[in-house]
Amino acid sequence: MVSPQSLSEADRRLVAAWAAECADRVRPLFEAEAPDDDRVRDAIARANAFARGELSAAGEIRRRFVAGRAAGSASSPAGKAAARAAAQAAGVAHMGAHALGAAAYAVRATELAQPVRGDAATAEVRWQLARLSPPQRDALAQLPALGADSAGPLGPGLLASGALGAIIRDLQARIGTR
Question: What pTM was estimated for this model as a whole?
Answer without folding.
Answer: 0.95
